[in-house]
Design brief:
It is built from 12 helices and 14 strands. The chain is of the alpha+beta class. The strands form 4 sheets. Strands 9-11-12-14-13 form a 5-stranded mixed beta sheet, covered by helices on one side.
Amino acid sequence: MKKSIIWLLTIVMSITFGALLYFQIMYLENMVNMRDAQFSEIVMRSLSSTSSFLEKKETLHFLEEDVNIIESSIFDKSPASSGGENLRYTIEHPDGTVTKYTLAAETDRSKQDPSKMTFPSPTGSVQSHYRDMQEVIRSQYLYQRELLNEVILSILRDAGLRPVFERADSTVIKNYLASELASYGLDVPFAFAVTSAKGAIIYATDGYEENDGKPQYSQVLFPNTDNQLRLNVEFPTKSSYIFSSVRFIIPTLAFTLILLVIFLYTIILAFRQKKLTEMKTDFINNMTHELKTPISTISLAAQMLNDDSVRKSPSSLKHLSQVIGDESKRLRFQVEKVLQMSVFDNSGSALKFTDIDANMIIQNVVNTFKIKVEKYGGSITTNLNAEDSVVNVDEMHFTNIIYNLLDNAVKYMKEDEEPKLSISTRNTEAGKFEIRIADNGIGIKKEDLKRIFEKFYRVSTGNRHDVKGFGLGLAYVKKMVTIFDGAINAESELGKGSTFIITLPLSKPSES
Protein backbone atom coordinates (compact mmCIF):
# COMPACT_ATOMS: atom_id res chain seq x y z
CA MET A 1 0.00 0.00 0.00
CA LYS A 2 1.31 3.43 -0.90
CA LYS A 3 2.16 5.85 1.86
CA SER A 4 -0.19 8.46 0.36
CA ILE A 5 -3.13 6.05 0.65
CA ILE A 6 -2.24 5.31 4.28
CA TRP A 7 -2.11 9.04 5.02
CA LEU A 8 -5.45 9.58 3.26
CA LEU A 9 -7.09 6.80 5.27
CA THR A 10 -5.55 8.20 8.44
CA ILE A 11 -6.90 11.69 7.80
CA VAL A 12 -10.39 10.45 6.88
CA MET A 13 -10.63 8.12 9.87
CA SER A 14 -9.23 10.78 12.22
CA ILE A 15 -11.84 13.29 11.06
CA THR A 16 -14.56 10.64 11.40
CA PHE A 17 -13.54 9.64 14.93
CA GLY A 18 -13.06 13.27 15.91
CA ALA A 19 -16.55 14.20 14.69
CA LEU A 20 -18.04 11.14 16.40
CA LEU A 21 -16.38 11.97 19.70
CA TYR A 22 -17.42 15.62 19.37
CA PHE A 23 -21.07 14.78 18.79
CA GLN A 24 -21.08 12.25 21.63
CA ILE A 25 -19.54 14.75 24.03
CA MET A 26 -21.99 17.45 22.90
CA TYR A 27 -24.90 15.04 23.32
CA LEU A 28 -23.66 14.10 26.78
CA GLU A 29 -23.30 17.77 27.72
CA ASN A 30 -26.78 18.58 26.40
CA MET A 31 -28.26 15.64 28.27
CA VAL A 32 -26.61 16.77 31.51
CA ASN A 33 -27.85 20.34 31.00
CA MET A 34 -31.35 19.11 30.21
CA ARG A 35 -31.43 16.86 33.29
CA ASP A 36 -30.15 19.71 35.41
CA ALA A 37 -32.84 22.05 34.02
CA GLN A 38 -35.54 19.43 34.68
CA PHE A 39 -34.21 18.91 38.19
CA SER A 40 -34.25 22.65 38.87
CA GLU A 41 -37.74 23.09 37.46
CA ILE A 42 -39.15 20.29 39.62
CA VAL A 43 -37.47 21.69 42.73
CA MET A 44 -38.70 25.23 42.10
CA ARG A 45 -42.24 24.00 41.49
CA SER A 46 -42.11 22.01 44.71
CA LEU A 47 -40.75 25.00 46.64
CA SER A 48 -43.45 27.27 45.22
CA SER A 49 -46.11 24.71 46.16
CA THR A 50 -44.64 24.46 49.67
CA SER A 51 -44.69 28.25 50.04
CA SER A 52 -48.32 28.37 48.88
CA PHE A 53 -49.22 25.58 51.29
CA LEU A 54 -47.70 27.46 54.23
CA GLU A 55 -49.60 30.62 53.26
CA LYS A 56 -52.88 28.73 53.09
CA LYS A 57 -52.12 27.07 56.40
CA GLU A 58 -51.48 30.44 58.01
CA THR A 59 -54.66 31.90 56.48
CA LEU A 60 -56.65 28.98 57.84
CA HIS A 61 -55.19 29.65 61.26
CA PHE A 62 -56.43 33.25 61.27
CA LEU A 63 -59.81 32.32 59.80
CA GLU A 64 -60.38 29.76 62.53
CA GLU A 65 -59.57 32.37 65.16
CA ASP A 66 -61.95 34.93 63.64
CA VAL A 67 -64.74 32.38 63.14
CA ASN A 68 -64.59 31.52 66.82
CA ILE A 69 -64.88 35.21 67.67
CA ILE A 70 -67.78 35.68 65.22
CA GLU A 71 -69.69 32.71 66.56
CA SER A 72 -69.40 33.95 70.10
CA SER A 73 -70.45 37.53 69.27
CA ILE A 74 -73.18 37.17 66.61
CA PHE A 75 -75.34 34.30 67.85
CA ASP A 76 -77.17 34.90 71.11
CA LYS A 77 -79.78 32.30 72.09
CA SER A 78 -82.43 33.00 74.81
CA PRO A 79 -85.76 31.32 75.66
CA ALA A 80 -88.97 32.93 74.20
CA SER A 81 -92.26 33.48 75.98
CA SER A 82 -93.95 30.99 73.68
CA GLY A 83 -91.99 28.12 75.19
CA GLY A 84 -89.55 27.75 72.23
CA GLU A 85 -86.22 29.49 71.49
CA ASN A 86 -85.68 32.88 69.85
CA LEU A 87 -82.64 33.46 67.60
CA ARG A 88 -81.30 36.95 68.03
CA TYR A 89 -78.98 38.41 65.36
CA THR A 90 -76.91 41.49 65.96
CA ILE A 91 -75.57 42.93 62.71
CA GLU A 92 -73.04 45.70 62.67
CA HIS A 93 -73.22 47.47 59.32
CA PRO A 94 -70.21 48.85 57.49
CA ASP A 95 -71.36 52.41 58.29
CA GLY A 96 -71.12 51.59 61.99
CA THR A 97 -74.88 51.25 62.69
CA VAL A 98 -76.12 48.19 64.57
CA THR A 99 -79.36 46.33 63.83
CA LYS A 100 -80.77 43.66 66.12
CA TYR A 101 -83.15 40.98 64.89
CA THR A 102 -85.09 38.43 66.87
CA LEU A 103 -86.57 35.41 65.12
CA ALA A 104 -89.19 33.64 67.19
CA ALA A 105 -88.99 29.87 67.10
CA GLU A 106 -92.20 28.25 65.96
CA THR A 107 -93.56 25.14 67.55
CA ASP A 108 -93.36 21.90 65.69
CA ARG A 109 -96.40 22.03 63.44
CA SER A 110 -96.13 18.37 62.68
CA LYS A 111 -97.36 17.68 66.22
CA GLN A 112 -100.44 19.92 65.97
CA ASP A 113 -103.85 18.84 64.90
CA PRO A 114 -104.11 19.51 61.19
CA SER A 115 -107.67 20.74 61.64
CA LYS A 116 -106.48 23.37 64.10
CA MET A 117 -103.50 24.54 62.00
CA THR A 118 -103.72 28.04 60.63
CA PHE A 119 -101.76 29.51 57.72
CA PRO A 120 -100.76 33.10 57.33
CA SER A 121 -102.67 35.04 54.77
CA PRO A 122 -100.88 37.09 52.21
CA THR A 123 -101.34 40.34 53.97
CA GLY A 124 -99.09 43.35 54.09
CA SER A 125 -97.40 42.19 57.30
CA VAL A 126 -96.03 39.08 55.55
CA GLN A 127 -94.67 41.14 52.70
CA SER A 128 -93.00 43.46 55.15
CA HIS A 129 -91.47 40.51 56.98
CA TYR A 130 -90.13 39.13 53.65
CA ARG A 131 -88.52 42.46 52.82
CA ASP A 132 -86.96 42.56 56.26
CA MET A 133 -85.47 39.12 55.71
CA GLN A 134 -83.98 40.22 52.38
CA GLU A 135 -82.45 43.18 54.10
CA VAL A 136 -81.03 40.90 56.77
CA ILE A 137 -79.44 38.62 54.15
CA ARG A 138 -77.99 41.56 52.25
CA SER A 139 -76.64 43.03 55.43
CA GLN A 140 -75.08 39.69 56.36
CA TYR A 141 -73.35 39.48 52.96
CA LEU A 142 -71.95 42.97 53.29
CA TYR A 143 -70.81 42.21 56.77
CA GLN A 144 -69.14 38.93 55.79
CA ARG A 145 -67.30 40.69 52.99
CA GLU A 146 -66.05 43.35 55.34
CA LEU A 147 -65.23 40.63 57.85
CA LEU A 148 -63.11 38.82 55.23
CA ASN A 149 -61.28 42.05 54.50
CA GLU A 150 -60.69 42.44 58.21
CA VAL A 151 -59.27 38.90 58.35
CA ILE A 152 -56.92 39.67 55.46
CA LEU A 153 -55.79 42.89 57.16
CA SER A 154 -55.19 41.01 60.38
CA ILE A 155 -53.09 38.46 58.50
CA LEU A 156 -51.01 41.19 56.95
CA ARG A 157 -50.74 42.99 60.27
CA ASP A 158 -50.27 40.18 62.75
CA ALA A 159 -48.75 37.32 60.71
CA GLY A 160 -45.22 38.60 61.18
CA LEU A 161 -45.67 38.59 64.94
CA ARG A 162 -46.17 34.84 65.07
CA PRO A 163 -43.12 32.72 65.98
CA VAL A 164 -41.19 31.37 62.99
CA PHE A 165 -41.46 27.81 64.25
CA GLU A 166 -45.28 28.14 64.14
CA ARG A 167 -45.38 29.80 60.76
CA ALA A 168 -42.80 27.48 59.11
CA ASP A 169 -42.66 24.24 61.03
CA SER A 170 -39.67 22.14 59.95
CA THR A 171 -41.58 18.86 60.06
CA VAL A 172 -44.41 20.25 57.95
CA ILE A 173 -41.96 21.67 55.40
CA LYS A 174 -39.94 18.45 55.23
CA ASN A 175 -42.95 16.18 54.80
CA TYR A 176 -44.76 18.40 52.30
CA LEU A 177 -41.64 19.15 50.22
CA ALA A 178 -40.71 15.45 50.14
CA SER A 179 -44.26 14.63 49.05
CA GLU A 180 -44.14 17.22 46.27
CA LEU A 181 -40.78 16.03 45.00
CA ALA A 182 -41.94 12.41 45.06
CA SER A 183 -45.03 13.33 43.04
CA TYR A 184 -42.66 14.45 40.26
CA GLY A 185 -40.61 11.27 40.55
CA LEU A 186 -37.68 12.99 42.30
CA ASP A 187 -36.71 10.85 45.28
CA VAL A 188 -33.41 12.32 46.49
CA PRO A 189 -32.23 13.35 49.96
CA PHE A 190 -32.21 17.06 50.74
CA ALA A 191 -31.42 19.49 53.51
CA PHE A 192 -32.97 22.91 54.06
CA ALA A 193 -32.81 26.03 56.18
CA VAL A 194 -35.19 28.88 56.93
CA THR A 195 -33.52 32.27 56.88
CA SER A 196 -34.52 35.85 57.39
CA ALA A 197 -34.88 38.29 54.53
CA LYS A 198 -31.28 39.38 55.15
CA GLY A 199 -29.94 35.83 54.94
CA ALA A 200 -29.44 35.04 58.63
CA ILE A 201 -30.15 31.36 59.31
CA ILE A 202 -33.02 30.93 61.77
CA TYR A 203 -32.84 27.15 61.79
CA ALA A 204 -31.42 24.43 59.52
CA THR A 205 -31.72 20.68 59.22
CA ASP A 206 -28.83 18.23 59.50
CA GLY A 207 -26.49 18.23 56.53
CA TYR A 208 -27.24 21.76 55.38
CA GLU A 209 -24.10 23.61 54.31
CA GLU A 210 -24.03 26.83 52.37
CA ASN A 211 -21.59 26.88 49.45
CA ASP A 212 -19.94 30.31 49.46
CA GLY A 213 -23.10 31.70 51.02
CA LYS A 214 -25.20 30.78 47.98
CA PRO A 215 -27.77 28.01 48.42
CA GLN A 216 -28.63 25.79 45.51
CA TYR A 217 -32.33 26.67 45.53
CA SER A 218 -34.25 29.38 47.39
CA GLN A 219 -37.91 30.40 47.70
CA VAL A 220 -39.56 33.35 49.49
CA LEU A 221 -42.08 32.36 52.15
CA PHE A 222 -45.06 34.62 52.95
CA PRO A 223 -44.18 37.23 50.30
CA ASN A 224 -47.20 39.43 51.19
CA THR A 225 -46.16 40.02 54.78
CA ASP A 226 -43.68 42.47 56.24
CA ASN A 227 -41.62 39.81 57.96
CA GLN A 228 -40.61 37.69 54.95
CA LEU A 229 -38.73 34.42 55.28
CA ARG A 230 -36.71 32.36 52.79
CA LEU A 231 -36.60 28.62 52.36
CA ASN A 232 -33.17 27.45 51.14
CA VAL A 233 -32.80 23.85 49.96
CA GLU A 234 -29.70 21.87 49.01
CA PHE A 235 -29.35 18.44 47.42
CA PRO A 236 -26.01 16.81 48.37
CA THR A 237 -26.40 13.99 45.83
CA LYS A 238 -27.60 16.14 42.93
CA SER A 239 -24.49 15.58 40.80
CA SER A 240 -24.52 11.81 41.24
CA TYR A 241 -28.28 11.74 40.54
CA ILE A 242 -27.87 13.65 37.27
CA PHE A 243 -24.84 11.54 36.32
CA SER A 244 -26.73 8.31 36.99
CA SER A 245 -29.50 9.46 34.65
CA VAL A 246 -27.05 9.86 31.74
CA ARG A 247 -24.54 7.12 32.56
CA PHE A 248 -25.82 4.95 29.71
CA ILE A 249 -23.91 7.27 27.35
CA ILE A 250 -20.55 6.64 29.06
CA PRO A 251 -20.02 3.10 27.65
CA THR A 252 -20.56 4.33 24.08
CA LEU A 253 -18.02 7.08 24.65
CA ALA A 254 -15.55 4.58 26.13
CA PHE A 255 -15.98 2.18 23.22
CA THR A 256 -15.38 5.02 20.77
CA LEU A 257 -12.16 5.94 22.57
CA ILE A 258 -11.04 2.30 22.51
CA LEU A 259 -11.71 2.14 18.78
CA LEU A 260 -9.75 5.37 18.31
CA VAL A 261 -6.77 4.01 20.23
CA ILE A 262 -6.87 0.76 18.26
CA PHE A 263 -7.08 2.69 15.01
CA LEU A 264 -4.11 4.91 15.91
CA TYR A 265 -2.10 1.88 16.99
CA THR A 266 -2.96 0.14 13.71
CA ILE A 267 -1.86 3.17 11.72
CA ILE A 268 1.42 3.32 13.64
CA LEU A 269 1.98 -0.37 12.96
CA ALA A 270 1.18 0.17 9.28
CA PHE A 271 3.76 2.95 9.02
CA ARG A 272 6.31 0.85 10.89
CA GLN A 273 5.63 -2.09 8.63
CA LYS A 274 5.90 0.17 5.61
CA LYS A 275 9.20 1.53 6.86
CA LEU A 276 10.48 -1.94 7.72
CA THR A 277 9.52 -3.20 4.28
CA GLU A 278 11.42 -0.35 2.65
CA MET A 279 14.45 -1.03 4.86
CA LYS A 280 14.38 -4.71 4.03
CA THR A 281 14.10 -3.90 0.34
CA ASP A 282 17.12 -1.63 0.63
CA PHE A 283 18.90 -4.31 2.63
CA ILE A 284 18.30 -6.93 -0.05
CA ASN A 285 19.46 -4.54 -2.76
CA ASN A 286 22.60 -3.64 -0.82
CA MET A 287 23.29 -7.23 0.11
CA THR A 288 22.90 -8.30 -3.50
CA HIS A 289 25.35 -5.63 -4.62
CA GLU A 290 27.81 -6.31 -1.81
CA LEU A 291 27.83 -10.04 -2.47
CA LYS A 292 27.73 -9.76 -6.22
CA THR A 293 30.90 -7.64 -6.48
CA PRO A 294 33.35 -10.06 -4.79
CA ILE A 295 31.69 -13.04 -6.46
CA SER A 296 32.11 -11.41 -9.86
CA THR A 297 35.76 -10.60 -9.10
CA ILE A 298 36.48 -14.15 -7.96
CA SER A 299 34.68 -15.55 -11.02
CA LEU A 300 36.74 -13.32 -13.31
CA ALA A 301 39.99 -14.35 -11.60
CA ALA A 302 39.05 -18.02 -11.97
CA GLN A 303 38.42 -17.53 -15.68
CA MET A 304 41.81 -15.87 -16.04
CA LEU A 305 43.48 -18.83 -14.35
CA ASN A 306 42.27 -20.98 -17.21
CA ASP A 307 44.36 -18.93 -19.60
CA ASP A 308 47.66 -20.71 -20.38
CA SER A 309 49.57 -17.46 -20.68
CA VAL A 310 48.51 -16.42 -17.21
CA ARG A 311 49.44 -19.77 -15.71
CA LYS A 312 52.93 -19.47 -17.19
CA SER A 313 53.45 -16.08 -15.50
CA PRO A 314 54.32 -16.41 -11.80
CA SER A 315 53.58 -12.73 -11.20
CA SER A 316 50.12 -13.05 -12.75
CA LEU A 317 49.37 -16.12 -10.67
CA LYS A 318 50.47 -14.31 -7.52
CA HIS A 319 48.33 -11.31 -8.37
CA LEU A 320 45.23 -13.41 -9.14
CA SER A 321 45.66 -15.50 -6.01
CA GLN A 322 45.93 -12.31 -3.96
CA VAL A 323 42.78 -10.92 -5.62
CA ILE A 324 40.88 -14.13 -4.92
CA GLY A 325 42.06 -14.10 -1.31
CA ASP A 326 41.11 -10.46 -0.74
CA GLU A 327 37.71 -10.84 -2.34
CA SER A 328 37.08 -14.03 -0.37
CA LYS A 329 37.85 -12.15 2.85
CA ARG A 330 35.56 -9.35 1.76
CA LEU A 331 32.80 -11.82 0.95
CA ARG A 332 33.25 -13.61 4.27
CA PHE A 333 33.18 -10.28 6.16
CA GLN A 334 29.87 -9.27 4.54
CA VAL A 335 28.35 -12.67 5.27
CA GLU A 336 29.49 -12.41 8.90
CA LYS A 337 27.76 -9.06 9.23
CA VAL A 338 24.48 -10.59 8.16
CA LEU A 339 25.00 -13.58 10.42
CA GLN A 340 25.81 -11.32 13.38
CA MET A 341 22.33 -9.80 13.33
CA SER A 342 20.77 -13.15 12.48
CA VAL A 343 22.38 -14.80 15.46
CA PHE A 344 21.36 -11.94 17.73
CA ASP A 345 17.73 -11.83 16.49
CA ASN A 346 17.37 -15.51 17.24
CA SER A 347 18.53 -14.70 20.78
CA GLY A 348 19.26 -18.38 21.15
CA SER A 349 22.95 -18.16 20.45
CA ALA A 350 25.06 -19.11 23.41
CA LEU A 351 27.36 -16.25 24.36
CA LYS A 352 30.54 -17.25 26.13
CA PHE A 353 31.11 -14.66 28.85
CA THR A 354 34.67 -14.62 30.14
CA ASP A 355 36.87 -12.14 31.93
CA ILE A 356 39.20 -10.58 29.37
CA ASP A 357 41.72 -7.79 29.34
CA ALA A 358 39.98 -5.24 27.14
CA ASN A 359 43.16 -3.20 26.61
CA MET A 360 44.91 -6.21 25.17
CA ILE A 361 42.00 -7.12 22.84
CA ILE A 362 41.77 -3.53 21.62
CA GLN A 363 45.52 -3.41 20.95
CA ASN A 364 45.33 -6.63 18.89
CA VAL A 365 42.43 -5.24 16.80
CA VAL A 366 44.37 -1.98 16.24
CA ASN A 367 47.47 -3.87 15.10
CA THR A 368 45.38 -5.78 12.55
CA PHE A 369 43.39 -2.77 11.39
CA LYS A 370 46.43 -0.46 11.12
CA ILE A 371 47.31 -1.93 7.71
CA LYS A 372 43.93 -0.89 6.29
CA VAL A 373 44.27 2.64 7.66
CA GLU A 374 47.79 3.05 6.34
CA LYS A 375 46.57 1.89 2.93
CA TYR A 376 44.70 5.20 2.70
CA GLY A 377 47.69 7.14 4.03
CA GLY A 378 46.15 7.57 7.47
CA SER A 379 47.16 6.76 10.99
CA ILE A 380 45.67 5.36 14.18
CA THR A 381 46.80 6.23 17.69
CA THR A 382 46.06 4.49 20.95
CA ASN A 383 45.99 5.74 24.53
CA LEU A 384 45.06 2.75 26.65
CA ASN A 385 45.29 4.46 30.02
CA ALA A 386 42.77 2.35 31.95
CA GLU A 387 44.53 0.70 34.86
CA ASP A 388 41.69 -1.74 35.46
CA SER A 389 40.61 -3.15 32.08
CA VAL A 390 39.17 -6.55 32.97
CA VAL A 391 35.55 -6.89 31.73
CA ASN A 392 33.19 -9.85 31.53
CA VAL A 393 32.11 -10.13 27.87
CA ASP A 394 32.04 -12.49 24.92
CA GLU A 395 35.50 -12.10 23.39
CA MET A 396 34.48 -12.69 19.77
CA HIS A 397 31.60 -10.19 19.86
CA PHE A 398 33.68 -7.65 21.79
CA THR A 399 36.33 -7.88 19.06
CA ASN A 400 33.63 -7.39 16.40
CA ILE A 401 32.36 -4.26 18.21
CA ILE A 402 35.79 -2.58 18.08
CA TYR A 403 36.38 -3.68 14.48
CA ASN A 404 32.98 -2.37 13.29
CA LEU A 405 33.55 1.05 14.83
CA LEU A 406 37.03 1.34 13.31
CA ASP A 407 35.73 0.14 9.96
CA ASN A 408 32.99 2.80 9.98
CA ALA A 409 35.60 5.48 10.72
CA VAL A 410 37.52 4.52 7.56
CA LYS A 411 34.37 3.99 5.49
CA TYR A 412 33.10 7.53 6.18
CA MET A 413 36.44 9.36 5.90
CA LYS A 414 36.81 12.58 3.93
CA GLU A 415 37.89 12.17 0.30
CA ASP A 416 40.41 15.02 0.43
CA GLU A 417 41.89 14.27 3.85
CA GLU A 418 43.86 11.37 5.26
CA PRO A 419 42.00 9.40 7.96
CA LYS A 420 43.15 9.97 11.51
CA LEU A 421 41.74 7.60 14.12
CA SER A 422 42.30 7.46 17.84
CA ILE A 423 41.19 4.97 20.45
CA SER A 424 41.58 5.46 24.18
CA THR A 425 40.49 3.80 27.40
CA ARG A 426 40.11 5.00 30.97
CA ASN A 427 38.44 4.19 34.27
CA THR A 428 35.53 6.49 35.10
CA GLU A 429 34.67 7.90 38.52
CA ALA A 430 31.63 5.63 38.55
CA GLY A 431 33.94 2.62 38.45
CA LYS A 432 33.36 1.63 34.83
CA PHE A 433 35.56 0.95 31.83
CA GLU A 434 35.27 3.57 29.06
CA ILE A 435 36.35 3.27 25.41
CA ARG A 436 36.52 6.29 23.07
CA ILE A 437 36.92 5.85 19.30
CA ALA A 438 37.28 9.16 17.41
CA ASP A 439 37.84 10.03 13.76
CA ASN A 440 38.12 13.07 11.48
CA GLY A 441 35.55 11.85 8.96
CA ILE A 442 32.54 13.51 7.35
CA GLY A 443 30.53 13.53 10.61
CA ILE A 444 26.84 12.92 11.19
CA LYS A 445 23.89 15.31 11.08
CA LYS A 446 21.95 15.89 14.29
CA GLU A 447 18.75 14.45 12.84
CA ASP A 448 20.63 11.29 11.83
CA LEU A 449 22.54 11.01 15.10
CA LYS A 450 19.41 9.85 16.95
CA ARG A 451 18.78 6.99 14.53
CA ILE A 452 22.20 5.62 13.67
CA PHE A 453 21.72 2.63 16.00
CA GLU A 454 18.46 1.56 14.32
CA LYS A 455 18.40 -1.64 12.33
CA PHE A 456 18.81 -1.13 8.55
CA TYR A 457 19.18 2.63 8.96
CA ARG A 458 21.92 4.20 6.84
CA VAL A 459 23.13 7.78 7.07
CA SER A 460 22.93 9.75 3.85
CA THR A 461 26.42 10.41 2.43
CA GLY A 462 25.46 13.11 -0.05
CA ASN A 463 27.12 12.74 -3.43
CA ARG A 464 29.29 9.83 -2.34
CA HIS A 465 28.27 6.52 -3.87
CA ASP A 466 31.22 4.37 -2.85
CA VAL A 467 29.99 3.79 0.69
CA LYS A 468 28.28 0.44 0.84
CA GLY A 469 26.70 -1.49 3.67
CA PHE A 470 23.56 -3.07 5.09
CA GLY A 471 22.80 -0.65 7.93
CA LEU A 472 23.48 -3.43 10.42
CA GLY A 473 26.89 -2.58 11.90
CA LEU A 474 25.92 0.05 14.48
CA ALA A 475 22.66 -1.76 15.31
CA TYR A 476 24.74 -4.85 16.08
CA VAL A 477 27.18 -2.82 18.19
CA LYS A 478 24.35 -1.21 20.16
CA LYS A 479 22.63 -4.48 20.96
CA MET A 480 25.77 -6.33 21.92
CA VAL A 481 26.89 -3.52 24.22
CA THR A 482 23.44 -3.65 25.83
CA ILE A 483 23.84 -7.40 26.37
CA PHE A 484 27.13 -6.67 28.09
CA ASP A 485 25.20 -4.36 30.50
CA GLY A 486 26.96 -1.38 28.97
CA ALA A 487 25.98 1.77 27.10
CA ILE A 488 27.09 3.47 23.89
CA ASN A 489 26.72 7.11 22.85
CA ALA A 490 27.78 9.06 19.79
CA GLU A 491 29.02 12.63 19.53
CA SER A 492 29.41 14.14 16.09
CA GLU A 493 29.53 17.39 14.17
CA LEU A 494 29.00 17.49 10.45
CA GLY A 495 32.31 17.93 8.65
CA LYS A 496 34.44 17.51 11.80
CA GLY A 497 34.26 13.83 12.61
CA SER A 498 32.58 11.59 15.15
CA THR A 499 33.33 10.04 18.53
CA PHE A 500 31.77 6.84 19.87
CA ILE A 501 31.86 6.29 23.63
CA ILE A 502 31.35 2.84 25.15
CA THR A 503 31.08 2.22 28.89
CA LEU A 504 31.19 -1.30 30.33
CA PRO A 505 31.02 -2.55 33.91
CA LEU A 506 34.31 -3.84 35.27
CA SER A 507 34.52 -7.49 36.12
CA LYS A 508 34.08 -8.19 39.82
CA PRO A 509 37.12 -9.83 41.39
CA SER A 510 36.57 -13.47 42.24
CA GLU A 511 36.26 -14.30 45.90
CA SER A 512 39.13 -16.44 47.10
